[in-house]
Amino acid sequence: MALIYASPADLSAWTGATAPPNAVQLLRRASGLVRKATATAFYATDPTGLPTDPVTLGAFKDATTAQAAMWSAAGIDPPGGGVAVTAPLRAKKIGSAALDYDTSASSSVTAYSARAAAAVELCTEAVDILQAAGINLLNPWIAG
Fold first, then answer.
1. 3-state class (DSSP) for residue 51
2. pTM of the model
3. I need a surface site. Which of 6, 32, 96, 108 has the fewest CB within 10 A?
């Protein structure tokens, strides 16, 4: 069973808006990125794998909600690879059925690549939250 560090209610509280319809999916994937980023960190857990320290648990929750909020605001869908298969529709016309796709810079290969990367990388705010809580994201913890 996958650990999910935040709930749709947490996401709503973070953003001040109603959670998006895909909030559970966003939070599940964001939790996975937090777990991946903290794989080398040393912290106590309960039997389910959640951190037992309230500061650490709060940082995991906040990092998860920050990540999900960024995805939601940017319209990034991690399960879909972060990007739409086609360029966004800019205009349509009913008579003679004309469609106009946005191929501007915001839909460029660079933007496409950035959105794809954002779907699989922890955002800066989430990293900052974890680091501010003293969670080591860089090196494995070594005893002795």
1. strand
2. 0.78
3. 96
Residue with tokens 């999916």: 25
Question: Cβ contacts of residue 15 below 8 Å, gap of 6+?
Answer: 65, 69, 72, 73
- Paired tokens of 126: 């989430």
Rounded CA gap, 121 and 144, in Å? 32
Residue 61 CA to residue 73 CA, distance in Å, equals 18
- Domain residue ranges of the chain, discontinuous segments joined by +: 1-81+120-144, 83-118
At 120-143, the pLDDT tens digits run 889 999 999 999 999 988 766 666
Question: What are the distances in angstroms from CA 68 to CA 3, 73, 88?
Answer: 15, 9, 22
